[in-house]
Amino acid sequence: MTIKVFNLHCNNGHMFEGWFSSHTEYEEQISKNLITCPICSSSEISKLLSTPYIGKKRSSSTIEKTHTNNIHNISLEQQAKTIESLRQIINKAENVGNNFAEEARLIHSGESQKTSIKGNISLDEKKELEEEGINIIPIPNFLDDDLLQ
User: Matching Pfam families, A to Z (predicted)?
Assistant: First the structure.
Protein backbone atom coordinates (compact mmCIF):
# COMPACT_ATOMS: atom_id res chain seq x y z
CA MET A 1 0.00 0.00 0.00
CA THR A 2 1.24 3.47 -0.89
CA ILE A 3 0.93 6.31 1.58
CA LYS A 4 0.69 9.93 0.48
CA VAL A 5 2.34 12.30 2.93
CA PHE A 6 1.24 15.91 2.60
CA ASN A 7 2.70 18.91 4.34
CA LEU A 8 -0.29 20.77 5.75
CA HIS A 9 -0.83 24.04 7.57
CA CYS A 10 -3.72 25.72 9.31
CA ASN A 11 -4.95 29.29 9.03
CA ASN A 12 -2.88 30.12 12.15
CA GLY A 13 0.35 29.09 10.39
CA HIS A 14 0.99 25.81 12.22
CA MET A 15 2.59 23.18 9.99
CA PHE A 16 2.14 19.42 10.31
CA GLU A 17 2.02 16.26 8.22
CA GLY A 18 -1.00 14.34 7.04
CA TRP A 19 -0.82 10.74 5.87
CA PHE A 20 -3.43 9.51 3.41
CA SER A 21 -3.96 6.46 1.22
CA SER A 22 -4.69 8.73 -1.76
CA HIS A 23 -5.18 12.32 -2.80
CA THR A 24 -8.90 11.54 -3.05
CA GLU A 25 -8.96 10.50 0.62
CA TYR A 26 -7.31 13.82 1.54
CA GLU A 27 -9.91 15.75 -0.50
CA GLU A 28 -12.79 13.82 1.10
CA GLN A 29 -11.50 14.46 4.63
CA ILE A 30 -10.94 18.16 3.91
CA SER A 31 -14.45 18.55 2.48
CA LYS A 32 -15.94 16.98 5.65
CA ASN A 33 -13.72 19.07 8.02
CA LEU A 34 -12.20 15.87 9.42
CA ILE A 35 -8.65 17.24 9.40
CA THR A 36 -7.75 19.58 12.24
CA CYS A 37 -4.54 21.21 13.34
CA PRO A 38 -2.90 19.25 16.19
CA ILE A 39 -1.73 22.52 17.76
CA CYS A 40 -4.82 24.77 17.72
CA SER A 41 -7.63 22.46 16.49
CA SER A 42 -8.41 24.73 13.52
CA SER A 43 -10.19 22.97 10.67
CA GLU A 44 -9.11 25.58 8.10
CA ILE A 45 -6.37 23.44 6.57
CA SER A 46 -4.39 23.86 3.35
CA LYS A 47 -1.86 21.69 1.63
CA LEU A 48 1.63 23.14 1.14
CA LEU A 49 3.62 22.62 -2.00
CA SER A 50 6.16 19.86 -1.61
CA THR A 51 8.45 17.79 -3.73
CA PRO A 52 7.64 14.14 -4.21
CA TYR A 53 9.89 11.48 -2.79
CA ILE A 54 11.46 9.50 -5.62
CA GLY A 55 13.65 6.64 -4.52
CA LYS A 56 16.33 4.78 -6.44
CA LYS A 57 15.45 1.33 -7.66
CA ARG A 58 15.57 -0.67 -4.44
CA SER A 59 13.29 -3.03 -2.66
CA SER A 60 10.14 -1.35 -1.38
CA SER A 61 11.08 -2.11 2.24
CA THR A 62 14.46 -0.37 1.81
CA ILE A 63 12.81 2.68 0.22
CA GLU A 64 10.19 2.81 2.98
CA LYS A 65 12.80 2.54 5.75
CA THR A 66 15.07 5.16 4.18
CA HIS A 67 12.23 7.60 3.58
CA THR A 68 10.80 7.06 7.05
CA ASN A 69 14.17 7.40 8.78
CA ASN A 70 15.24 10.47 6.84
CA ILE A 71 12.05 12.49 6.91
CA HIS A 72 9.16 11.25 9.02
CA ASN A 73 10.87 10.05 12.18
CA ILE A 74 12.69 13.34 12.57
CA SER A 75 9.54 15.31 12.00
CA LEU A 76 7.39 13.11 14.22
CA GLU A 77 10.03 13.13 16.96
CA GLN A 78 10.21 16.92 16.82
CA GLN A 79 6.44 17.18 16.89
CA ALA A 80 6.21 14.83 19.88
CA LYS A 81 8.84 16.82 21.81
CA THR A 82 7.11 20.10 21.00
CA ILE A 83 3.71 18.77 22.05
CA GLU A 84 5.12 17.39 25.31
CA SER A 85 6.83 20.73 26.07
CA LEU A 86 3.58 22.59 25.40
CA ARG A 87 1.66 20.15 27.59
CA GLN A 88 4.07 20.77 30.50
CA ILE A 89 3.83 24.56 30.13
CA ILE A 90 0.04 24.50 29.89
CA ASN A 91 -0.37 22.23 32.89
CA LYS A 92 1.78 24.55 35.04
CA ALA A 93 -0.40 27.54 34.16
CA GLU A 94 -2.92 28.75 36.73
CA ASN A 95 -6.49 27.95 35.69
CA VAL A 96 -8.50 31.15 36.23
CA GLY A 97 -11.67 29.73 34.67
CA ASN A 98 -14.14 32.29 33.38
CA ASN A 99 -12.06 35.17 34.80
CA PHE A 100 -9.47 34.79 32.05
CA ALA A 101 -10.10 38.11 30.26
CA GLU A 102 -10.07 40.09 33.52
CA GLU A 103 -6.88 38.37 34.76
CA ALA A 104 -5.15 38.82 31.38
CA ARG A 105 -5.88 42.56 31.51
CA LEU A 106 -4.51 42.84 35.06
CA ILE A 107 -1.30 41.07 34.06
CA HIS A 108 -0.98 43.13 30.88
CA SER A 109 -1.40 46.43 32.76
CA GLY A 110 1.10 45.41 35.44
CA GLU A 111 -1.54 45.40 38.21
CA SER A 112 -1.02 41.69 38.73
CA GLN A 113 2.14 39.55 38.77
CA LYS A 114 3.24 38.31 35.36
CA THR A 115 2.41 34.60 35.29
CA SER A 116 1.03 31.96 32.97
CA ILE A 117 -2.73 31.62 33.11
CA LYS A 118 -5.35 29.61 31.28
CA GLY A 119 -9.12 29.76 31.28
CA ASN A 120 -12.24 30.37 29.25
CA ILE A 121 -13.27 33.36 27.15
CA SER A 122 -15.95 34.13 24.62
CA LEU A 123 -15.15 35.07 21.03
CA ASP A 124 -16.09 38.69 21.84
CA GLU A 125 -13.68 38.74 24.80
CA LYS A 126 -10.96 37.24 22.59
CA LYS A 127 -11.44 40.00 20.01
CA GLU A 128 -11.42 42.70 22.70
CA LEU A 129 -8.17 41.37 24.19
CA GLU A 130 -6.54 41.30 20.76
CA GLU A 131 -7.68 44.88 20.07
CA GLU A 132 -6.10 45.90 23.40
CA GLY A 133 -2.80 44.33 22.30
CA ILE A 134 -3.08 41.34 24.62
CA ASN A 135 -1.92 38.25 22.79
CA ILE A 136 -3.52 34.96 23.69
CA ILE A 137 -3.18 31.44 22.33
CA PRO A 138 -6.07 28.97 22.13
CA ILE A 139 -5.23 25.71 23.86
CA PRO A 140 -6.40 22.51 22.17
CA ASN A 141 -8.16 20.20 24.63
CA PHE A 142 -5.67 17.37 24.16
CA LEU A 143 -2.84 19.50 25.60
CA ASP A 144 -4.60 20.45 28.84
CA ASP A 145 -4.86 17.73 31.49
CA ASP A 146 -7.62 19.75 33.22
CA LEU A 147 -9.80 19.30 30.13
CA LEU A 148 -9.03 15.58 29.75
CA GLN A 149 -10.35 14.61 33.17
Answer: DUF1178
